[in-house]
Design goal:
The complex is a heterotrimer of chains A (299), B (290) and C (445). By secondary structure, chain A is mainly alpha-helical. Chain A has 14 helices and two strands. Chain B has one domain: MetI-like (MetI-like fold), CATH 1.10.3720. Chain B has 13 helices and no strands. In chain B, helix 8 packs antiparallel against helix 9. Chain C folds into two domains: 168 residues, D-Maltodextrin-Binding Protein, domain 2; 220 residues, D-Maltodextrin-Binding Protein, domain 2, CATH 3.40.190. The chains are: A mainly alpha (299), B mainly alpha (290), C alpha/beta (445). Chains in contact: A-B, A-C, B-C. The interface between A and B is large, with 102 and 108 residues.
């Protein structure tokens, strides 16, 4: 599999050391401490060590029995599926559409990027006003079109009755642009000649996409799916600004961990370990799935 | 731009649907930005009473900006931000590119472990690593010093580490699609491995390096959490923490919040507009060389 | 001087010199241009000038943020010393930064911080200096304060900090809503039963009686609801078990809140609304009552057009608690850290700074209508007070009993079963007594 020129491996360490040194010092070493903390009893956040929990696995035992953690896992599972379909799916659709139009593609490239640059605080506020109970944008529209009865001031409490929808929509919407940009960059790497050849051979648009674009874009798509899955596991800022303290049982693993960071540091560490383990496992699974039928085009 | 679909060219029904879809989505993405900018020209009582109205006539107010520019050294904050995020983006591109190249092209012992570590590195929640990092950097004496560059460094270093995993994973997926023949040809002509990376791989992958650079810059720029731990005195403040302080100054003063959002977003959008050209240029370059 | 063009230029400049080396020259020049007024103090350490690091919570939305800035500048001008100020809004991030700083040895020289359980950690580790020790060398330190009000540490009962401005909690009233609903504004004589009738009348008139987000900020109602089953002497004591007298009082208080929820006296979406949202109900004449702290006076003043329409009164009491028995106290103070005090160069400057910031004049200015520990009492300048400010002053002067908030004796973890899960309690899926037991089991861990 390795090409001839890459048989001599002397240079490998020079290329790897800078990046991995940074990550060892700033990520892995602190996270090892985090793993140790998850077995400890920590009285104050910020203090090191303390004493071992009795039993040592206390936090993990608590977690299995913690109904909120189960809710968080269930909701995160829903979120993962929704982000794969909603974020990566939409982003792929838009990337294909934009790369196939002649006028205005620069415009769409730019505006699809907008949501990513606005801070979660501002977006949280915006969506809070959109989903607001009294005088919120959606409720006002529904009253205007007569779906809700104005005379009795009938209102929908979006954060109670459709809590999951209200929470997931902003998150999905915000990151479509992110995957859009990544996939667009992937499209940039596909040689134009292949399309021209396909056109000469009389292939339809759909055939071109199916037999040329998608197979060549597979690496990028796999990366996007991995990023979406891991992102869903740790997302917290936007849901947290909209749903403080997990109202209506909208806990996600990310928000639930955050809610424990300051009040129960060692339990939060244990949740972080679970998040990371799930993330690594799911990433490997995603890569397996995409690699299986990827063999034919792997040089 | 909306008039594009009325241009002659071919207006097949399919194209109309395509444009309708794209325009519909772009409306949802333009709306929040326009909404934020418009609200930044209103005082907070106006925002309370109707955040979706236009700031026209009496409703128009420059108070939010006047307040920000009169009371804060916003230029110093912009400069600190650009120093921090620019450095982060450049270092991430370089180091992540090198690592991604070797991880895709070479087979060596322990490669799968490194790959797993990469995915893990992306998962670490910032709040579970920040306290050991603070303690470590404090023991090196680079936290809370009297020197502004050193304080900026104490933000730059953890942010570089935080962006590397993502960058390596994304860059790997692009490098994998490069035809290996080009590298072999360069090797024949006597290029060593460093020359191949810097002269062949990096230029060919320019769009993806630009993309990764944009996102690293953006995340560093918007990363309030790390800044709150390491940038404490006013001379050290970067733009995000400065504007966070302004926005919180009057409690739920949404006017100041939107002024802040606008001031934070504008430079990023300018950078994106400029660099986006590089991504598009990559499309044509790829066509020539591919 | 700050024009858009200058902004753009500097942005481009910064862009062009991205990288470590180039930034050094630019950053060192900067402070002198903008703080020309204080140039004499800021230029490289004048003769005898000492720089001390100070961290406070006088930042962001704190009403005293500007007073603090002014006071620091005045002290700097008077002494020729300099303050390196790293104040920030007090939130969880700030608190964890403070404790980690103490752990890592990068704490400031002077710290204005909570004197309750939040300070236990660095008190237990001996990282702050007690008032008595300072008095051995500086006999007049905090001599203008009543010692028993300084705020002794819950860890060992010793005084470490010197307080400035305290707080009280009271019930703000939207008079227009009361009038529209045809009810009188509650007074010191209003009983709990009468208050319930008032709420019912307001509800029938189509208004929300009480603005409160049980999801985000149930803290004030928790405090007064359990206070109503105790009195000013017993309130500030944690139960030893959920079954003892205090534990039962807590459960009874929580059940009263459940009653408010069931009677519909809280906003319909109190379990999903944010505090900002319910506060808006109050300022927009849709809700009648709001329990909050003395710091909210400024927030109401800046949120409404007609401040005459608002007042503050006593939370109606029941049982042994008179309506005029209130929650209030001094929850924060200036600490001098061991690090700053043992530094021979800085010691005198630290002491001088705290003495200046806790002098009668400065405290009077900061205190407004709130409680102080001054022997001579605070003398706030009332000339600029609004109608609500005057009402607050009158309110603060009419207490018959005062107790600190008992929740300040609980750390974040112990509070969680009640404050993080109010929805389950009022909806009945968690029994109030069980929640209290859970709190105690965490607190005693």
């Amino acid at each position: 599999m390795t090409a001839r020129i890459y048989k001599n491996k002397k240079a490998v360490p020079f290329f790897l050391i800078p990046a991995f040194l940074f990550m060892f010092v700033y990520l892995y070493y602190p996270f090892v401490q985090n793993i140790i903390n998850s077995f400890m009893h920590i009285k104050y956040i910020g203090t090191s060590g303390g004493e071992l929990n009795t039993p040592v696995l206390k936090n993990y035992i608590t977690m299995i029995q913690d109904p909120k953690m189960l809710i968080a896992l269930k909701n995160t599972g829903i979120m993962i599926i929704a982000t794969i379909i909603g974020q990566v799916g939409l982003a792929l659709l838009f990337a294909l559409l934009v790369s196939n139009i002649k006028k205005g593609s620069g415009f769409f490239r730019t505006v699809f990027f907008f949501p990513i640059v606005i801070s979660a605080t501002a977006l949280g506020l915006l969506f809070n006003l959109i989903f607001l109970y009294d005088k919120g944008m959606i409720n006002q529209i529904l009253q205007f079109v007569g779906y809700l009865d104005i005379s009795t001031n009938e209102l929908i409490d979006w954060k109670a009755e459709h809590a999951m929808f209200t929470m997931m929509t902003p998150v999905i919407w915000q990151y479509v642009g992110f995957y859009f940009v990544i996939l667009l960059t992937g499209l940039a790497g596909i040689p134009q000649e292949l399309y021209e050849a396909a056109f000469i051979d009389g292939g339809t648009k759909w055939q071109t996409v199916k037999y040329i674009t998608l197979p060549l874009l597979k690496n990028s798509i796999a990366t996007c799916v991995v990023l979406a899955v891991t992102g869903a596991l740790k997302v917290f800022d936007l849901p947290w600004t909209m749903f403080v303290n997990g109202m209506s049982d909208t806990w996600l693993t990310g928000t639930y961990m955050y809610s424990k960071v300051y009040s129960d540091a060692d339990y939060a560490s244990a949740i972080a370990v679970v998040i990371v383990v799930l993330g690594v496992v799911l990433s490997v699974v995603v890569n397996r799935i995409f690699r299986q039928d990827a063999d034919y085009d792997a040089s | 731009m909306n008039n594009t679909k009325s241009k002659k060219l071919h207006i097949s029904p399919g194209m109309v649907v395509v444009y309708l879809l794209l325009i519909l989505w772009s409306l949802t993405t333009i709306f929040p930005l326009v909404w934020s900018v418009l609200n930044s020209f209103k005082n907070k009582k106006m925002i309370y009473s109707n955040s979706f109205s236009l700031p026209i006539g009496d409703a128009f107010s420059l108070d939010n900006y006047r307040n920000i520019f009169a009371n804060y050294n916003i230029l110093s904050a912009y400069r600190n931000s650009f120093v921090i995020s620019g450095t982060v983006a450049l270092v991430v591109i370089l180091f992540a590119g090198m690592a991604a190249y070797v991880l895709t092209r070479y087979d060596f012992v322990g490669k799968s472990i490194l790959n797993a570590l990469l995915y893990a590195g992306m998962m670490f929640p910032i709040f579970s690593t920040i306290i050991p990092v603070l303690r470590m950097q404090a023991s090196w004496g680079i936290v809370n010093t009297s020197s502004v560059p050193v304080n900026l460094l104490s933000v730059i270093l953890p942010q570089i580490a935080g962006n590397l995993s993502f960058a390596i994973i994304v860059l790997s997926s692009y490098i994998r699609t490069l035809p290996i023949e080009l590298e072999e040809a360069a090797h024949m002509e006597g290029c060593n491995i460093f020359q191949i990376f810097f002269r062949i791989v990096m230029p060919l992958c320019r769009p993806s390096f630009v993309t990764v650079g944009i996102f690293s810059f953006l995340w560093s720029y918007n990363d309030l959490f790390t800044q709150m731990f390491f940038l404490r005195t006013k001379d050290n403040w970067a733009i995000t923490i400065l504007l966070n302080n302004i926005a919180s100054k009057e409690g739920v003063n949404y006017g100041a919040l939107f002024g802040s959002v606008t001031l934070i977003v504008i430079p990023v959008l300018i950078i994106y507009l400029v660099l986006n050209k590089q991504i598009i240029k990559g499309m044509t370059v790829g066509a020539v060389k591919g | 001087m700050k024009k858009a063009t200058a902004l753009l230029l500097s942005g481009m400049m910064a862009l062009s010199m991205v990288g470590c080396g180039a930034s050094d020259t630019a950053t060192t020049e900067e402070p002198t241009t903008d703080t020309a007024a204080e140039a004499e103090d800021t230029t490289s350490a004048p003769e005898g000038g000492v720089t001390i690091q100070v961290t406070t919570t006088y930042a962001g939305e704190d009403t005293n943020a500007q007073n603090y800035k002014d006071a620091v500048a005045a002290w700097e001008a008077e002494t020729g010393n300099k303050v390196e100020d790293s104040s920030a809004t007090s939130d969880e991030t700030f608190k964890s930064r403070i404790v980690t700083d103490f752990e890592a040895g990068s704490e400031p020289d002077v710290l204005f911080y909570f004197n309750g359980v939040d300070s236990n950690q660095f008190v237990e580790q001996g990282k702050v200096v007690s008032v008595d020790e300072i008095r051995e060398t500086y006999p007049d330190y905090a001599s203008n304060m009543k010692d028993d009000l300084l705020g002794a540490s819950p860890a060992d009962g010793v005084n470490y900090s010197v307080p400035v401005n305290g707080y009280w909690e009271g019930m703000f009233v939207n008079k227009e809503v009361c009038e529209a609903a045809g009810v009188e504004v509650p007074t010191a004589d209003t009983t709990w039963e009468e208050f319930m009738d008032i709420c019912a009348t307001i509800k029938d008139a189509g208004y929300t009686p009480i603005a409160c987000s049980l999801q985000e900020v149930p803290h004030y109602w928790f405090e007064y609801a359990i206070y109503n089953h105790q009195d000013a002497k017993t309130h500030n004591t944690l139960p030893t078990s959920a079954d003892d007298e205090i534990g039962q009082a807590w459960a009874a208080g929580l059940n009263d809140i459940k009653g408010l929820y069931e009677d519909g006296f809280l906003p319909e979406n109190t379990l999903t609304a944010t505090d900002a949202e319910t506060f808006q109900l109050f300022t927009e004449d849709k809700a009648a009552f709001l329990i909050d702290g003395s710091w909210k006076v400024g927030g109401i003043e800046s949120a409404v057009d007609d401040i005459e329409n608002f007042t503050v009164t006593h939370v109606p009491g029941m049982g042994n608690r008179k309506s005029t028995d209130e929650i209030g106290g001094l929850s924060m103070g200036y600490f001098i850290t061991r690090k700053g005090y043992d530094d021979a160069d800085k010691q005198a400057a630290c002491v001088s700074f705290v003495e200046y910031m806790t002098s009668d004049e400065v405290v009077s200015k900061f205190a407004g209508t709130s409680v102080t520990a001054l022997k001579n009492g605070a003398k706030p300048d009332t000339s600029s007070f609004t109608a609500l400010g005057n009402a607050a002053l009158e309110y603060a002067g009419s207490f018959t009993g005062i107790s600190p908030a008992v929740q300040d004796n609980l750390n974040e973890a112990a509070r969680a079963p009640i404050f993080g899960d109010m929805a389950s309690i009022v909806k009945g899926s968690v029994d109030a007594a069980d929640a209290v037991a859970e709190v105690l089991s965490i607190a005693n861990e």
